[in-house]
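User: Could you go from structure to sequence for me? I need the amino acid at each position, not a summary. Structure tokens:
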């Protein structure tokens, strides 16, 4: 079903992207899952189609379109059948590049945004550490100001695109206090001395996106690679979380729709007791419940997307969408696997990948529990 948020132009664009995904992405997903990442050529191909720069102003080589158009692209890319593909592409243009686009200067946008949307560079965002996930105030990575540069020391983990990125937007402490006003963001090129990448991390799902650990030992960061103002990094991270959580919620909706479609198809083909299992009321109602669950998440997500595109602060709306969509996709994919029965437990069927890929959605980008903590404060349940 179409939604009022999307114009005729959006839907035309959706059909174009869908054809591209069906022809140039979906056939190779199983290979990329085994290889543990997508090829650089896919970034370049998507860049050549201008899909990586949808929301980027024309001044920097983008299309200068709205966030809703980029949302259409990310939804359709998710439907390739692998959450990792969307994670890799979205991690570069939606999560890593966006702070540079929103808070960086012209020099940084020209040097990093332009080649990123062309598919010539891949970005990663480095916030999470072994002892600091949702609690950004616990970061131990430091950037000490020297004469004309910052000296970076520390480590990051669970970094999407961490293995193959050309640059990482790194969050580091630039002073000890005051809390939340002591973090800065830096653009760190992965080829610089003192930058080391650990071995690829082996994940339950999202296997077609590479994930790694990063280590910094006396990495010299030029002053011009500080994003925005020193010590304003926490604010930039929180602002970026709004778009990141919309991206994740959109992926959840698209992912769940894919699982429901697969369930409807399989249940109409699987014969038991001389009839397709879709003829049994219990299966029919199960799929209806899945559809209703998806619609709830969809409308929460699209409302947040619409308000974000209008320039509104959507801390509450994005959190509502993230917490509900993240749990919803787990429920829907679990039900889908149940409908497939024993076949769903076999690696031969894609539904097992849908189930595995879904599990991270209530963890990444802020756990469900952290989302509930945010909402407790936003709704003034607690002071």
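Assistant: Here is the amino acid at each position, in order:
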């Amino acid at each position: 079903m179409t939604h009022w948020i999307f114009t005729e132009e959006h839907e035309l664009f959706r059909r174009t992207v869908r054809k591209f995904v069906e022809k140039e992405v979906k056939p190779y997903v199983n290979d990329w899952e085994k290889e543990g990442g997508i090829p650089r050529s896919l970034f370049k191909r998507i860049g050549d189609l201008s899909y990586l720069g949808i929301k980027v102003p024309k001044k920097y080589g983008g299309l200068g379109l709205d966030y809703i158009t980029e949302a259409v692209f990310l939804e359709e890319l998710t439907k390739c059948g692998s959450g990792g593909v969307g994670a890799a592409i979205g991690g570069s243009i939606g999560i890593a590049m966006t702070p540079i686009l929103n808070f960086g200067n012209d020099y940084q946008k020209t040097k990093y945004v332009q080649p990123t949307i062309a598919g010539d560079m891949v970005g990663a965002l480095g916030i999470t550490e072994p002892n600091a996930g949702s609690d950004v105030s616990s970061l131990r990575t430091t950037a000490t100001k020297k004469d004309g540069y910052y000296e970076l020391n520390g480590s990051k983990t669970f970094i999407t695109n961490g293995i193959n990125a050309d640059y990482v937007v790194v969050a580091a402490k630039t002073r000890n206090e005051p809390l939340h006003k002591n973090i800065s963001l830096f653009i760190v090129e992965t080829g610089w001395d003192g930058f080391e990448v650990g071995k690829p991390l082996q994940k339950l799902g999202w296997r077609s996106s590479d994930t790694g650990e990063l280590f910094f030992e006396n990495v010299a960061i030029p002053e011009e690679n500080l994003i925005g103002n020193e010590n304003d990094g926490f604010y930039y991270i929180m602002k970026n979380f709004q778009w990141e959580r919309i991206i994740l919620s959109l992926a959840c909706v698209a992912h769940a729709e894919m699982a429901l479609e697969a369930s409807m198809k399989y249940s109409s083909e699987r014969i038991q007791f001389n009839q397709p299992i879709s003829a049994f009321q219990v299966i029919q109602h199960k799929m209806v419940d899945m559809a209703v669950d998806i619609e709830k998440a969809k409308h929460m997500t699209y409302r947040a997307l619409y308000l974000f595109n209008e320039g509104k602060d959507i801390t509450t709306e994005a959190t509502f969408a993230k917490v509900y969509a993240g749990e919803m996709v787990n429920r829907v994919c679990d039900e889908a696997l149940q409908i497939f029965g024993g076949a769903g437990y076999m690696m031969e069927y894609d539904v097992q990948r849908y189930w595995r890929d879904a599990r991270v959605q209530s963890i990444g980008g802020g756990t469900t529990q952290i989302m509930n903590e945010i909402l407790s404060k936003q709704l003034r349940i607690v002071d």
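One structural detail worth keeping in mind: Residues 246 and 305 are 7 Å apart (CA to CA).
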